[in-house]
Specification:
Blueprint (H helix, E strand, L loop, with lengths): L19 E6 L2 E7 H20 L7 H18 L13 H7 L2 H4 L10 H7 L1 E4 L5 E3 L4 E9 L7 H17 L4 E11 L3 H12 L6 H18 L4 E11 L2 H17 L4 E6 L2 H12 L9
Antiparallel strand pairs: 1-2, 3-4, 4-5, 5-7, 5-8, 6-7
Helix pairs in contact: 1-2, 7-8
Length: 293
Protein backbone atom coordinates (compact mmCIF):
# COMPACT_ATOMS: atom_id res chain seq x y z
CA UNK A 1 0.00 0.00 0.00
CA UNK A 2 1.47 3.34 -1.05
CA UNK A 3 1.89 6.02 1.57
CA UNK A 4 -0.39 9.02 1.57
CA UNK A 5 2.42 11.34 2.58
CA UNK A 6 6.20 11.27 2.46
CA UNK A 7 8.70 12.93 4.76
CA UNK A 8 12.24 14.00 4.03
CA UNK A 9 14.60 12.02 6.30
CA UNK A 10 17.19 13.87 8.33
CA UNK A 11 20.54 14.04 6.50
CA UNK A 12 23.40 11.98 7.85
CA UNK A 13 25.82 14.90 7.71
CA UNK A 14 23.91 17.17 10.07
CA UNK A 15 25.86 18.50 13.04
CA UNK A 16 25.01 19.50 16.58
CA UNK A 17 23.96 22.92 15.32
CA UNK A 18 21.23 21.36 13.13
CA UNK A 19 19.37 19.74 16.03
CA UNK A 20 16.06 21.48 16.66
CA UNK A 21 14.73 22.53 20.05
CA UNK A 22 11.11 23.28 20.82
CA UNK A 23 10.05 25.16 23.96
CA UNK A 24 7.16 27.27 25.23
CA UNK A 25 7.04 30.74 26.73
CA UNK A 26 4.17 31.43 29.11
CA UNK A 27 2.02 28.70 27.65
CA UNK A 28 2.73 29.85 24.08
CA UNK A 29 4.34 27.14 21.96
CA UNK A 30 7.37 28.41 20.06
CA UNK A 31 8.11 26.69 16.71
CA UNK A 32 11.08 24.34 16.82
CA UNK A 33 14.32 26.12 16.00
CA UNK A 34 17.74 24.65 15.23
CA UNK A 35 20.61 25.35 17.58
CA UNK A 36 22.41 27.44 14.95
CA UNK A 37 19.47 29.84 14.75
CA UNK A 38 19.18 30.18 18.52
CA UNK A 39 22.91 30.81 18.90
CA UNK A 40 22.95 33.30 16.02
CA UNK A 41 19.99 35.31 17.35
CA UNK A 42 21.33 35.27 20.89
CA UNK A 43 24.81 36.27 19.78
CA UNK A 44 23.44 38.99 17.51
CA UNK A 45 21.42 40.54 20.34
CA UNK A 46 24.41 40.46 22.70
CA UNK A 47 26.72 42.01 20.09
CA UNK A 48 24.16 44.75 19.42
CA UNK A 49 23.87 45.61 23.12
CA UNK A 50 27.66 45.52 23.50
CA UNK A 51 28.16 47.85 20.54
CA UNK A 52 25.51 50.28 21.83
CA UNK A 53 26.94 50.46 25.36
CA UNK A 54 30.69 50.03 24.93
CA UNK A 55 31.85 51.31 21.54
CA UNK A 56 31.82 54.86 20.15
CA UNK A 57 28.10 54.52 19.46
CA UNK A 58 27.34 55.25 23.15
CA UNK A 59 28.66 58.78 22.61
CA UNK A 60 25.92 59.51 20.06
CA UNK A 61 22.60 61.00 20.94
CA UNK A 62 19.73 58.84 22.29
CA UNK A 63 17.87 59.02 18.98
CA UNK A 64 20.85 57.67 17.03
CA UNK A 65 21.44 54.90 19.58
CA UNK A 66 17.79 53.82 19.38
CA UNK A 67 17.97 53.94 15.58
CA UNK A 68 21.15 51.83 15.54
CA UNK A 69 19.72 49.25 17.95
CA UNK A 70 16.48 48.97 15.98
CA UNK A 71 18.34 48.61 12.67
CA UNK A 72 20.77 46.04 14.12
CA UNK A 73 18.00 43.92 15.67
CA UNK A 74 16.00 43.93 12.43
CA UNK A 75 19.10 42.81 10.52
CA UNK A 76 19.89 40.09 13.08
CA UNK A 77 16.38 38.64 13.08
CA UNK A 78 16.10 38.81 9.30
CA UNK A 79 19.46 37.16 8.63
CA UNK A 80 18.70 34.67 11.39
CA UNK A 81 15.49 33.56 9.73
CA UNK A 82 15.25 30.14 8.07
CA UNK A 83 14.83 29.42 4.39
CA UNK A 84 12.65 26.61 3.04
CA UNK A 85 15.65 24.29 3.31
CA UNK A 86 16.12 25.14 7.01
CA UNK A 87 19.26 27.16 6.41
CA UNK A 88 19.98 30.59 7.84
CA UNK A 89 19.36 33.51 5.48
CA UNK A 90 22.87 34.59 6.40
CA UNK A 91 24.18 31.76 4.19
CA UNK A 92 22.59 33.39 1.12
CA UNK A 93 24.48 36.66 1.55
CA UNK A 94 27.66 35.49 -0.32
CA UNK A 95 25.55 34.44 -3.31
CA UNK A 96 23.79 37.83 -3.24
CA UNK A 97 27.08 39.72 -3.18
CA UNK A 98 28.36 37.65 -6.11
CA UNK A 99 25.18 38.46 -8.05
CA UNK A 100 25.23 42.23 -7.49
CA UNK A 101 27.95 43.17 -10.04
CA UNK A 102 26.46 43.84 -13.47
CA UNK A 103 29.02 41.56 -15.10
CA UNK A 104 27.62 38.65 -13.08
CA UNK A 105 24.07 39.31 -14.34
CA UNK A 106 24.85 39.99 -18.00
CA UNK A 107 26.32 37.28 -20.22
CA UNK A 108 27.27 38.18 -23.78
CA UNK A 109 26.75 35.39 -26.32
CA UNK A 110 28.11 37.09 -29.43
CA UNK A 111 30.70 35.22 -31.45
CA UNK A 112 33.16 38.03 -30.73
CA UNK A 113 32.55 37.89 -26.95
CA UNK A 114 34.71 35.90 -24.58
CA UNK A 115 33.47 32.43 -23.66
CA UNK A 116 34.06 32.72 -19.92
CA UNK A 117 30.61 34.10 -19.11
CA UNK A 118 28.76 31.40 -21.01
CA UNK A 119 31.11 28.72 -19.71
CA UNK A 120 30.29 29.70 -16.12
CA UNK A 121 26.61 29.00 -16.86
CA UNK A 122 26.93 25.86 -18.98
CA UNK A 123 29.62 24.19 -16.90
CA UNK A 124 30.34 21.63 -19.64
CA UNK A 125 33.89 20.87 -20.76
CA UNK A 126 33.06 18.57 -23.65
CA UNK A 127 30.84 15.96 -25.22
CA UNK A 128 32.46 12.65 -26.20
CA UNK A 129 31.58 10.63 -29.28
CA UNK A 130 29.65 8.08 -27.19
CA UNK A 131 27.55 10.84 -25.60
CA UNK A 132 29.45 11.10 -22.29
CA UNK A 133 29.31 14.65 -20.90
CA UNK A 134 32.33 16.05 -19.03
CA UNK A 135 31.29 18.72 -16.54
CA UNK A 136 33.56 21.48 -15.26
CA UNK A 137 33.34 20.20 -11.67
CA UNK A 138 35.01 16.92 -12.67
CA UNK A 139 31.84 14.83 -12.84
CA UNK A 140 30.63 12.91 -15.89
CA UNK A 141 27.15 12.22 -17.18
CA UNK A 142 24.98 10.53 -19.78
CA UNK A 143 21.62 11.53 -21.23
CA UNK A 144 18.72 9.07 -21.46
CA UNK A 145 15.41 9.48 -23.24
CA UNK A 146 12.80 7.93 -20.96
CA UNK A 147 9.13 7.03 -21.26
CA UNK A 148 7.19 6.63 -18.03
CA UNK A 149 3.90 5.00 -17.10
CA UNK A 150 2.11 7.84 -15.31
CA UNK A 151 -1.32 8.83 -16.57
CA UNK A 152 -4.50 10.50 -15.34
CA UNK A 153 -6.38 7.36 -16.35
CA UNK A 154 -4.60 5.03 -13.92
CA UNK A 155 -6.62 2.95 -11.48
CA UNK A 156 -5.89 3.30 -7.77
CA UNK A 157 -4.19 -0.10 -7.69
CA UNK A 158 -1.85 0.92 -10.52
CA UNK A 159 -1.06 4.22 -8.82
CA UNK A 160 -0.14 2.42 -5.61
CA UNK A 161 2.02 -0.06 -7.50
CA UNK A 162 3.87 2.75 -9.29
CA UNK A 163 4.44 4.70 -6.07
CA UNK A 164 5.77 1.60 -4.33
CA UNK A 165 8.09 0.88 -7.25
CA UNK A 166 9.38 4.46 -7.33
CA UNK A 167 9.99 4.38 -3.58
CA UNK A 168 11.90 1.11 -3.97
CA UNK A 169 13.96 2.53 -6.84
CA UNK A 170 15.17 5.58 -4.92
CA UNK A 171 16.25 3.37 -2.04
CA UNK A 172 18.69 1.64 -4.41
CA UNK A 173 20.10 4.75 -6.06
CA UNK A 174 23.73 5.46 -5.04
CA UNK A 175 24.39 8.81 -3.43
CA UNK A 176 27.42 9.38 -5.66
CA UNK A 177 25.23 10.06 -8.71
CA UNK A 178 22.66 12.78 -9.35
CA UNK A 179 19.51 12.28 -11.43
CA UNK A 180 18.40 15.37 -13.37
CA UNK A 181 14.94 15.04 -14.94
CA UNK A 182 14.22 17.28 -17.92
CA UNK A 183 10.87 17.72 -19.68
CA UNK A 184 10.83 19.52 -23.04
CA UNK A 185 8.43 20.17 -25.88
CA UNK A 186 10.18 19.35 -29.15
CA UNK A 187 9.32 18.31 -32.71
CA UNK A 188 8.25 14.70 -32.95
CA UNK A 189 11.00 12.15 -33.54
CA UNK A 190 10.58 10.46 -36.92
CA UNK A 191 13.71 8.30 -37.08
CA UNK A 192 11.83 5.00 -37.08
CA UNK A 193 9.26 6.18 -39.62
CA UNK A 194 11.93 7.46 -42.01
CA UNK A 195 13.94 4.24 -41.61
CA UNK A 196 10.85 2.15 -42.37
CA UNK A 197 10.13 4.29 -45.43
CA UNK A 198 13.69 3.74 -46.64
CA UNK A 199 13.43 -0.02 -46.14
CA UNK A 200 10.20 -0.04 -48.11
CA UNK A 201 11.88 1.98 -50.85
CA UNK A 202 14.74 -0.51 -51.11
CA UNK A 203 12.31 -3.42 -51.19
CA UNK A 204 10.40 -2.10 -54.19
CA UNK A 205 10.45 -4.73 -56.92
CA UNK A 206 9.12 -2.35 -59.57
CA UNK A 207 10.69 1.10 -59.74
CA UNK A 208 7.56 2.77 -61.01
CA UNK A 209 7.79 6.59 -61.25
CA UNK A 210 4.38 7.03 -59.59
CA UNK A 211 5.39 4.83 -56.67
CA UNK A 212 8.66 6.73 -56.28
CA UNK A 213 6.81 10.04 -56.36
CA UNK A 214 4.45 8.75 -53.66
CA UNK A 215 7.46 7.73 -51.58
CA UNK A 216 8.97 11.20 -51.96
CA UNK A 217 5.69 12.80 -50.97
CA UNK A 218 5.48 10.68 -47.82
CA UNK A 219 9.10 11.55 -47.00
CA UNK A 220 8.39 15.29 -47.37
CA UNK A 221 5.35 15.00 -45.11
CA UNK A 222 7.40 13.25 -42.43
CA UNK A 223 10.37 15.62 -42.50
CA UNK A 224 8.66 18.94 -43.20
CA UNK A 225 5.39 18.60 -41.29
CA UNK A 226 5.38 15.76 -38.77
CA UNK A 227 9.02 16.22 -37.77
CA UNK A 228 9.04 19.99 -38.10
CA UNK A 229 5.73 21.58 -37.15
CA UNK A 230 4.14 19.08 -34.79
CA UNK A 231 5.59 19.04 -31.28
CA UNK A 232 5.31 16.53 -28.46
CA UNK A 233 6.51 16.21 -24.88
CA UNK A 234 9.88 14.50 -24.39
CA UNK A 235 11.35 13.50 -21.06
CA UNK A 236 15.04 12.99 -20.35
CA UNK A 237 17.09 11.99 -17.36
CA UNK A 238 20.73 13.04 -17.02
CA UNK A 239 22.83 10.78 -14.82
CA UNK A 240 25.62 12.91 -13.35
CA UNK A 241 28.15 10.89 -11.42
CA UNK A 242 31.08 12.10 -9.38
CA UNK A 243 33.29 9.66 -11.28
CA UNK A 244 33.09 7.19 -14.14
CA UNK A 245 32.56 4.34 -11.70
CA UNK A 246 29.72 6.19 -9.95
CA UNK A 247 28.08 6.80 -13.33
CA UNK A 248 28.42 3.12 -14.22
CA UNK A 249 26.77 2.05 -10.95
CA UNK A 250 23.86 4.44 -11.49
CA UNK A 251 23.49 3.13 -15.03
CA UNK A 252 23.28 -0.45 -13.76
CA UNK A 253 20.57 0.52 -11.24
CA UNK A 254 18.56 2.27 -13.96
CA UNK A 255 19.02 -0.63 -16.35
CA UNK A 256 17.95 -3.11 -13.68
CA UNK A 257 14.82 -1.06 -13.01
CA UNK A 258 13.82 -1.01 -16.68
CA UNK A 259 14.47 -4.72 -17.13
CA UNK A 260 12.70 -5.70 -13.91
CA UNK A 261 9.51 -3.68 -14.26
CA UNK A 262 7.79 -1.16 -16.50
CA UNK A 263 5.92 0.57 -13.68
CA UNK A 264 8.33 3.46 -13.15
CA UNK A 265 10.09 3.59 -16.55
CA UNK A 266 8.55 1.80 -19.48
CA UNK A 267 11.31 2.52 -21.99
CA UNK A 268 14.75 4.11 -21.90
CA UNK A 269 17.15 5.00 -24.70
CA UNK A 270 20.77 6.02 -24.24
CA UNK A 271 21.50 9.07 -26.38
CA UNK A 272 24.70 9.41 -28.39
CA UNK A 273 26.64 12.57 -29.09
CA UNK A 274 24.30 13.98 -31.75
CA UNK A 275 21.11 13.33 -29.78
CA UNK A 276 22.62 14.66 -26.53
CA UNK A 277 23.83 17.77 -28.31
CA UNK A 278 20.36 18.32 -29.74
CA UNK A 279 18.84 18.12 -26.27
CA UNK A 280 21.43 20.45 -24.72
CA UNK A 281 21.01 22.95 -27.54
CA UNK A 282 17.49 23.67 -26.27
CA UNK A 283 18.96 25.22 -23.11
CA UNK A 284 22.23 26.70 -24.32
CA UNK A 285 21.90 27.76 -27.92
CA UNK A 286 18.76 27.28 -29.94
CA UNK A 287 18.54 25.48 -33.24
CA UNK A 288 21.51 26.98 -35.08
CA UNK A 289 25.06 25.76 -35.32
CA UNK A 290 26.76 22.95 -33.45
CA UNK A 291 27.01 23.33 -29.68
CA UNK A 292 30.39 21.70 -29.31
CA UNK A 293 33.41 21.87 -31.55
Amino acid sequence: MARRSYSIPAPLNRSFLDHEISFSLGGWQVPASPMKQILFLGGGVLVTLWAATTTFIKSAGPALIVLFVAWALVAVFYLGGLTKTRELRLMTVPALLAYLPRTARLVLTRRSAGPNGFYSIAGIDGLADDGTISFSDGSVGRVYLVVGSASYLLFDEDQNSILNRVDSFWRKVPTTCEHVFITTKEPQRIYHQVANLERRNLALAVRDPDLLELQDEQYDILTSHVGGRFTSIHQYVVLKGKSTDALRQAHLVLQSEVEGSSLMIREVTILGRDESEQMLRIFYQGTGDSLMG
